[in-house]
Specification:
Structural class: alpha/beta
Shape: globular
Strand order of the largest sheet: 6-5-10-11-12
Radius of gyration: 27 Å
Number of strands: 22
Mean pLDDT: 81
Low-confidence stretches: 20-26
Number of helices: 13
Strand content: 15-25%
Distance between the termini: 44 Å
C-alpha cells in the first residue's frame, strides 16, 4: 500500500532518481514560466522577506536548485529548499519552514489549499501540459446533451487552462459552470447559491442545487477526486486524464465506499481506546479539533491518546497494540487513509463524531474537512447533555453482538481532587505524577528496551546461530 500520505518506504528505496520528463527548460513556458518566477519574486519583494522556504514535491525536486538560484538573484533574499515534508506534500510544511527560520513559504506543485496558521504562503501550482482541444472533445462525447448542467472541476496544476477551456465550451453549453481556485478562505460564510469547498468556489444555479448537476474533473485519478466524489456523492462524475488524453465516466461505487466508511463508524463505536493521530501541524484549526475530539471521547467514556508519528504506516501504528482504532487529523485529502493494510482501522474526525455524538445522524452528506465540525462551522452539532448511567439506553454492537452504552455520560469523578495529581512516591519525599498512561505501561510485561545496568551478569561473547529463520545451520542439533 502506498499513497501520497502513507508509504512503507519500499518505493523510495527502489526508485531511480533522475530529471523528470520535460524538466527544466523543456517545461511549458520554460523554467521561468512554469514556476511563475515573476509572480513569486514580486511576492517576496512585496513582503520584504529576507529568508524564504521553497517547498517542492518529489517530482519537482530536480528543478529546486535552479529555481532557488534564480529567485535569490531576482530578490536578494536567502532561499531554503524543503524536500521531504513532515506530512503530506500537498500541505504547507510550516514546521520545517520555522526550523529553517523562514519568514514565508513558496509552495510548489499540487496542493490541498488548506489554510495555514502562521506564515505567509504563495501557491505556485506549476502549469502541467494539457491538450485543451482534446479535453473539450472528451467533454462533448461524455455530455452530448447541450442543455446539461455540469460543474467543471480541475486539479490545481491545470487551473491555468480552465479559462481557455471555458471559451471553447461556453457557446455550446449555456448551463456549464466552471469552478475557480481560491487559495485563501474568503471572509464570512458563503452566500446562498454558492459552494466553497476544497479551495474551489462556484455558483449553483439549478433549482435542485448540486443534485441536478453533474461533475467533470480534469486531472488524474487520486485522493482529490476521491474526496470530491465522497463529498458530492449525489452527483454523477466524469473525468479527463491529461496524461492519457482519455475521458471516462467514473465507476467508483460510491455506495460501496460509503458502506465501508460506515463499517468503520461501527468499529469506532465498539472501541474503548482511541489513538488521535496528528497528521498536520500547519492547517488552521487543528488544535481546536484535537481538543474537540478529546472532549468528545471523554464524554463518550473512551480513553484517548494523542500521537504524533509523522507519516503513518502499518509498521508505526502496530506498535500501539492497546489502541482499538485511530482517528487521523489531517487535511481534507489526506484524511481518507486506506487502512486495509493496517493492524487497526483509521477513521476521520467526522466518522468518529458519527460514532460518539448521539445528536449527529447520517444524512448522506460526507465531510472530509475537520473544520466543518468546529463550533460556528456549517456542520457543527452540539453535544447533547449527559445522561445518568442508570438511565442510559444500552445499544447492541452490529459487529460483536455485545451491549454498549449509546448515550454520553459524565465520567465518574475521581476520588482525588485534581490538585493531587502529584503524590509522594517513597519515604524520601520524591514526587511522582499520577498518569493513567504510565500506570498502564507499568502493567505490560514488555515495556521496550531496558538497560538494566548492574542487573545483567557480564558474559563472554559466543558464536550465534547462522542461516535464515526458516532453517538455521544447526537446526535439529542440540546446542552446547
Amino acid at each position: 500500500m502506498a499513497t501520497a500520505f502513507s508509504s512503507d518506504g519500499e518505493a523510495a528505496l527502489r526508485r531511480r532518481l533522475g530529471p523528470a520528463a520535460g524538466a527544466g527548460a523543456g517545461r511549458r513556458g520554460g523554467l521561468g514560466g512554469f514556476y511563475e518566477m515573476g509572480r513569486a519574486a514580486a511576492f517576496v519583494r512585496g513582503g520584504g522577506f529576507r529568508k524564504v522556504a521553497l517547498q517542492f514535491p518529489d517530482e519537482l525536486l530536480a528543478d529546486a536548485a535552479a529555481v532557488a538560484a534564480q529567485m535569490e538573484a531576482a530578490t536578494g533574499a536567502e532561499m531554503y529548499i524543503l524536500g521531504d515534508t513532515t506530512y503530506g506534500s500537498c500541505c504547507v510544511d510550516e514546521v520545517a519552514a520555522e526550523h529553517a527560520g523562514a519568514e514565508a513559504v513558496l509552495h510548489y506543485g499540487s496542493a490541498c489549499l488548506s489554510p495555514c496558521r502562521k506564515l505567509p504562503v504563495l501557491h505556485i501550482f506549476g502549469q502541467q501540459p494539457l491538450d485543451i482541444r482534446r479535453c473539450a472533445e472528451a467533454f462533448r462525447e461524455l455530455y452530448p446533451d447541450r442543455q446539461s448542467r455540469v460543474v467543471v472541476l480541475s486539479d490545481v496544476v491545470y487551473a491555468y487552462a480552465m479559462g481557455e477551456l471555458e471559451q471553447l465550451l461556453r457557446p455550446e453549453y449555456p448551463h456549464i459552470i466552471f469552478s475557480r481556485v481560491v487559495c485563501e478562505d474568503p471572509p464570512g460564510p458563503a452566500p446562498p447559491g454558492e459552494v466553497r469547498q476544497f479551495g474551489r468556489q462556484f455558483p449553483v444555479e439549478a433549482l435542485g442545487g448540486l443534485q441536478d448537476c453533474a461533475m467533470f474533473y480534469v486531472g488524474a485519478e487520486g485522493l482529490a477526486l476521491t474526496s470530491f466524489m465522497l463529498t458530492w456523492n449525489c452527483c454523477p462524475f466524469s473525468s479527463f486524464d491529461p496524461a492519457t488524453g482519455c475521458g471516462r465516466r467514473e465507476t467508483l461505487n460510491i455506495n460501496r465506499a460509503l458502506m465501508r466508511r460506515l463499517y468503520l463508524v461501527e468499529r469506532a463505536r465498539d472501541a474503548r481506546v482511541v489513538g488521535i493521530l496528528v497528521g498536520t501541524l500547519g492547517v488552521a484549526g487543528y488544535l481546536a479539533v484535537l481538543q474537540h475530539l478529546q472532549e468528545l471521547l471523554r464524554r463518550a467514556g473512551k480513553r484517548s491518546y494523542t500521537l504524533a508519528v509523522g507519516k503513518p504506516n502499518p509498521a508505526k501504528l502496530a506498535n500501539f497494540l492497546e489502541v482499538d482504532i485511530f482517528v487521523l487529523v489531517a487535511c481534507a485529502q489526506n484524511s481518507l487513509l486506506d487502512s486495509s493494510d493496517f493492524f487497526r482501522p483509521v477513521v476521520t474526525p467526522y466518522e468518529l463524531e458519527l460514532a460518539c455524538n448521539p445528536a449527529r445522524e447520517w444524512t448522506g452528506n460526507y465531510l472530509t474537512d475537520f473544520r466543518d465540525l468546529l463550533p460556528g462551522a456549517c456542520a457543527h452539532v452540539e453535544l447533547p447533555p449527559a445522561v445518568p448511567a442508570a438511565e442510559a439506553v444500552p445499544d447492541i454492537s452490529l459487529i460483536t453482538g455485545e451491549m454498549r452504552a449509546a448515550q454520553l455520560c459524565d465520567p465518574p469523578a475521581s476520588q482525588l481532587p485534581p490538585s493531587t495529581t502529584l503524590a509522594c512516591r517513597d519515604q524520601t519525599r520524591a514526587l511522582a505524577e499520577i498518569s493513567p498512561a504510565a500506570s498502564f505501561l507499568e502493567s505490560r510485561s514488555w515495556r521496550g528496551l531496558e538497560q538494566q545496568l548492574g542487573q545483567t551478569p557480564v558474559s563472554k561473547a559466543v558464536q550465534g546461530r547462522r542461516g535464515i529463520a526458516i532453517a538455521y545451520e544447526d537446526e535439529g542439533r542440540k546446542r552446547p
